[in-house]
From TrEMBL:
Stated name of the protein: Glu/Leu/Phe/Val dehydrogenase
Top-level taxon: Bacteria
InterPro entries listed in its UniProt record: Aminoacid_DH-like_N_sf, Glu/Leu/Phe/Val/Trp_DH, Glu/Leu/Phe/Val/Trp_DH_C, Glu/Leu/Phe/Val/Trp_DH_dimer, Glu/Leu/Phe/Val_DH_AS, Glu/Phe/Leu/Val/Trp_DH_bac/arc, NAD(P)-bd_dom_sf
Boundaries of every Glutamate/phenylalanine/leucine/valine/L-tryptophan dehydrogenase C-terminal domain copy: 152-361
Length: 365
């Protein structure tokens, strides 16, 4: 049983994760490990998704996050054309104080026990070096360091894919696949946001940034002196923008944000950007083009998935370049079916899971 996020009392976990194949809770008091692995679907293959290390306010919040994120991974892998399912894991705690070799190796043993139905990789709070520790106990790890034959930092192609999706959105909005001369606001300039800023500057865009971590802002402004910064996300959203790129945590697109947003495009790296169902309709009503998050941020997944074949950056980047065409296809379907881009992306992903998905339903190694 898990407490309901709304605080209305206990609710059956099967109700919370009614679409999911498997949810595994891991506890190792000796190292302080408290982790949850959620496997949403293995219709297309074993589930692949990163491990998020985050100080959730409650177990209920962690459960809700891992369920939402794992579902998004199924759709992301399907839309990206990968033969992989969707999964995600969260470790509850502050990585700055709790993360240790012992904890990561204990976590690796838990992932190993799932026997290949879930492959882990990096996410918020975890890095390629952490995957190397996990891999000492586990065979089902990707996103490892280059020194260990891995793909390294998956944020490189995540940002590249977001940039490709943004180019496709610009083509729809302004007739040309470029951000040259446009003002792009980037909220969150961590691993992905910083790479995205570089692509935008190289393409001739004016960039405005914000981040709760001031050293990240200072580092980007030092590297790119033409970048300007504002004090908060609220200030960024209220700025005169052509494109708004949420690149931090989810739920960034709220009713309040839609009401004040001047941007014509929303396209960013964050997962689960829409705060609740119906926000996509509000964006559409205001004439704001939304590039579905799991469509444009699939570059990191493509990068770490390529590692399973023996990593080639050139091959992975070529595959990530396809995000431009995939995003364009989403916009074309949205226009032809008279639906939002979010609905169109879901339809394309669900079609592939249905048409290509293995008839046996769940994947076994």
């Amino acid at each position: 049983m898990s407490e309901q996020p709304s605080g209305t009392g206990p609710v059956d976990v099967f109700e919370l994760g009614s679409e999911h194949e498997q949810v595994v809770f891991a506890n190792d008091p000796a190292t302080g490990l408290k982790a949850i692995v959620a496997i949403h679907s293995t219709a297309l293959g074993p589930a692949l998704g990163g491990t998020r290390f985050y100080p959730y306010a409650s177990t209920a919040d962690a459960v809700q996050d891992v369920l939402n994120l794992s579902r998004g991974m199924s759709y992301k892998a399907a839309l990206a054309g990968l033969d992989l399912g969707g999964g995600k894991a969260v470790i509850i705690g502050d990585p700055a104080t709790l993360k240790s070799e012992a904890l990561l190796r204990a976590y690796g043993r838990f992932v190993e026990s799932i026997n290949g139905r879930y492959y882990t990789a990096c996410d918020v709070g975890t890095f390629s070096e952490d995957m190397d520790h996990i891999a000492r106990e586990c065979s089902y790890v990707t996103g490892r360091t280059v020194a260990h034959g891995g793909a390294g930092d998956s944020s490189v192609l995540t940002a590249y894919g977001v940039f490709q999706g943004m180019r496709a959105a610009a083509e729809v909005a302004w007739g040309a696949p470029t951000l040259a001369g446009r003002t792009v606001g980037v909220a969150g300039i961590g691993k992905v946001g910083r790479h995205l800023v570089r692509h935008l500057i190289e393409d001739g865009a004016a960039v405005v940034v914000t981040d709760v971590h001031q050293p990240s802002v200072d580092a980007v402004v030092a590297e790119f002196p033409q970048v300007t910064s504002v004090a908060s996300t609220d200030a960024l959203v209220a700025s005169e923008l052509d494109v708004y790129a949420p690149c931090a945590l989810g739920g960034a697109i709220t009713d309040e944000v839609v009401d004040v947003l001047t941007a014509k495009i929303v396209c960013g790296a964050a997962n689960n950007q829409l705060a609740h169902p119906g926000v996509e309709k509000s964006l559409e009503d205001r004439g704001i083009l939304y590039a579905p998050d799991y469509c444009v941020n699939a570059g990191g997944l493509i990068q770490v998935a390529d590692e399973l074949e023996g990593f080639s950056f050139e091959r992975a980047q070529q595959r990530a370049s396809g995000i431009f065409d995939t995003t364009r296809r989403v916009f074309e379907l949205a226009a032809s079916d008279g639906v939002s881009p979010a609905t169109a992306a879901d339809r394309l992903a669900e079609r592939r899971m249905r048409d290509v998905g293995r008839l046996r339903g769940i994947w076994l190694p």
